[in-house]
Design a protein that fits this description.
By secondary structure, the chain is an all-beta fold. It is 2% helix and 54% strand. The chain is globular and about 75 Å long. The chain binds copper (II) ion.
Length: 690
């Protein structure tokens, strides 16, 4: 049995198979042991290893893993299940795929973004594609695409591999992860299990935040690999969890997911036909939220429970054609169908909700046709362009709609004005990008323009408590149209790696959610949330650099900024994070590592109260803060890494600008926003064997 370092995989290894151009991968010389700010090494593409330890220690979910990639921020709701935001764009503007599959949450109140069903360490690679600069991964990804992927290599001979980790930290945090892969050249098996658990954390003021969670997952796959170019894989997953939410009156008591997927790919079929791929999948999410499982309830009569579910069926088929060494194109089709239901119950018999029938409230279907071209104009010049068309259908199955609470805390049920309506539309997306490698310097420059039409999602059209500005239903909200210019550069010399990416974005019919709007209802006035189409502009970018001072010392830094306007209202665009910078200093002698990280976030005075997205709305301005953290690592032998850290060393009390407002939860202090954790000490052991 030979050991191998799988733990500090150079990013170059991870880039193999990169969605864009694996043939132009450049080596990364400045990989980190404890990941603090993954770099963009290829135009618009950031690749990171989800098995590597990172600082600050993330909740074991997808959103927190993304948060340390410059450009990302997270809307915090409690201890886990935050919503990832890229360049101020939340929710469905960010297309998140798990091994090519979509999994959209069930919760009408957004307790479960797709990342709530992601257990990052059970994946091998996370790829972020910034901007509307690919059409291969489904419709609507106007802000970007995130791919969580497993890459199971064909076994050269019978053997096995194991990857595992144990984590312990403040506030009762404990995680266990195991992933085993065994196989022969012809067949393989992969199985993984993850479990993570945390008590309530304390903010920097020592106030306990209602935030405890327990989550676990299992997944397994069997594959057939008769040769190096063929793979057939059947996979399945089951996961569940519960999580406390400090920002609302209910908690998540169940986040059950069942999944089955079938994938086929064959490459190098002929000189022209480079690859064919096919995929089918099924995801079922069964979610329960209530106000009595994870918090005390005032009386049995006050019990409330919601049990939504969502069934997602999807598939994809694509062929990559190689017209010449310089020209490749991928053509394909994909589809997805979603059926959402809801049942609710309240009062002393709330728990008997399971005997109630589920009522379908909406369904969505889309069929897409796409093509993406990669063409080298010369050794140094590359053109990438794509086009896709999607046919959409949505049905509103609600007979009744429900209002938000009014000032007296009352909710009203009324006839749904769009009951039984169906929408059909065809939307398109396209982009083109030019990349140029300088001859005189290890620099790549790029510029691209992309336009995406995004069909409104379940939360924008249907989800309880939202209406349009004029009618009692938001079902006829217009699609959002994003036109974005992306420019940037990457630089990769021996000691210095640097990148800069900028964007300018015009959004027509930006789908905005505005809360606390007064609307007359019968004789009274209700305070409701409405969905509005407004025009918006955003611009900003990210910059990062890492410089090796010596063979052992390295400094790195990253900056991210976004600024936006709501052009219709003449105000700042809401829910945009402020300017953020990170500065790191690291020592690594291949056995020991020590690192320090300073995260500086400026004040945000540009806000628009009560406006935002399906996840959250602006509350007010926030002050700036600086958070200092320390980390260290020890590699006792190949295949083993012990890493640890102290996050927020000075126990600063702070909240991210876009985080949700704190709710009144019995036994807890109510805060303006959900504060981030105070000082957190953690230790993680990674082991890789084969
Ligand atoms: Cu929920």
């Amino acid at each position: 049995m030979k050991n191998k370092i799988l733990l500090s995989l150079p990013v170059a290894t991870l880039l193999v198979g990169n969605a864009f151009a694996a043939d132009t991968v450049k080596p990364a010389r400045l990989e980190e042991v404890v990941v603090t700010a993954p770099m963009m090494l290829e135009p618009l593409t950031v690749v990171t290893d989800p098995k590597a330890p990172r600082q600050p220690i993330p909740a074991h979910d997808g959103a927190d893993y993304l948060k340390n990639i410059p450009g990302f921020s997270v809307i915090r709701k409690g201890g886990t299940d935050g919503d990832p935001v890229l360049r101020g764009m939340a929710a469905s503007r960010l297309n998140i795929l798990l091994d090519g599959e979509n999994i959209l949450g069930g919760c009408g109140n957004r307790m479960d973004p797709p990342t709530a069903y992601i257990f990052p360490e059970s994946y091998d690679r996370v790829t972020v594609i910034k901007g509307p600069q690919s059409v291969l991964y489904g419709p609507g990804s106007s802000a970007g695409t995130v791919l969580f992927e497993r890459t199971i290599k064909r076994f050269d001979q019978a053997g096995w591999k194991f990857n595992g980790s144990l984590t312990a930290g403040s506030f009762g945090r404990n995680d266990q992860v195991a992933d085993i892969r065994a196989g022969t050249p012809d067949f393989y098996f992969q199985g993984a299990g993850t479990r993570t658990d945390s008590g309530d954390y304390k903010d920097g003021n020592g106030r306990t935040v209602h935030s405890a969670y327990t989550r676990w997952s299992t997944n397994a796959a069997v594959g057939w690999t008769p040769d190096n170019n063929t793979r057939l894989e059947l996979s399945g997953a089951h996961s569940d969890g519960e999580a406390a939410y400090g920002d609302r009156s209910m908690d998540g008591a169940k986040f059950s997911r069942d999944n089955v997927g079938l994938k086929f790919e064959k490459s190098k079929i002929s000189a022209l036909l480079d690859k064919i791929e096919g995929q089918l999948y099924y995801n079922y999410v069964d979610h329960v939220m209530d106000n009595y499982t994870l918090r005390p309830v005032a009386s049995a009569a006050a019990k409330m429970v919601n049990n939504p579910d969502r069934e997602t069926t999807g598939g994809r088929a694509a062929a990559t054609l190689k017209f010449s060494d310089a020209t490749k194109a991928t053509l394909g089709v994909d589809f997805q169908s979603n059926i959402h239901t809801l049942r609710t119950s309240m009062g002393a018999t709330a728990e008997s909700y399971t005997s109630k029938p589920r009522a379908e409230d909406a369904n969505f279907q889309n069929y897409g046709l796409f093509g993406e071209l990669n063409h080298y104009l010369s050794q140094q010049d590359k053109l990438v362009a794509g086009l896709r068309a999607d046919h959409w259908n949505a049905e509103d199955k609600r007979t009744a709609a429900q209002s938000t609470k009014d000032a007296a805390g009352l909710m009203y049920t009324y006839t749904n004005p769009t009951a039984g309506q169906s929408r059909d539309t065809t939307l398109t997306s396209s982009f083109a990008r030019y990349e140029h490698d300088l001859v005189t310097s290890p620099t790549t420059l790029y510029a691209g323009i992309g336009r995406t039409e995004r069909f409104p999602d379940y939360w924008e059209l249907i989800s309880a408590n939202k209406e349009s500005a004029t009618t009692g239903s938001a079902f006829n909200t217009n699609p959002e149209k994003t036109t974005q210019l992306d420019v940037g550069a990457t630089y990769n010399a021996g000691r210095l790696t640097a990148s800069v990416s900028g964007f300018y974005n015009k959004i027509g019919d930006y789908i905005m959610v505005q809360s606390k709007v007064n609307k007359t209802y019968m004789a009274g006035v209700r305070s409701i949330s409405i969905v509005r189409n407004v025009d918006a502009t955003t611009w900003g970018g990210e910059a990062g650099a890492a410089y090796a001072l010596s063979d052992t010392w390295k400094v790195d830094g990253a900056l991210s900024y976004v600024r936006g306007d709501n052009d219709t209202d003449g105000t700042a665009l809401a829910q945009l994070p402020p300017l953020e910078g990170r500065l790191g200093l690291n020592y690594d002698n291949k056995v020991w590592t020590v690192g320090a990280l300073l995260r500086l976030v400026s004040e945000q005075t540009r806000y628009d109260a009560n406006k935002g997205n399906i996840v959250g709305q602006d509350i007010g301005k926030t002050g700036g803060f600086g958070i200092f953290s320390l980390n260290g690592g020890y590699r006792p032998k190949k295949g083993m890494l012990v890493a640890g850290g102290i996050d927020n060393l000075f126990d600063k009390a702070y909240a991210e600008h876009i985080s949700r407002a704190g709710a009144m939860v019995s036994g807890y202090d109510q805060t303006i926003r959900i504060n981030e954790p105070g000082r957190t000490v953690w230790l993680k052991l990674n082991v890789a064997l084969d």
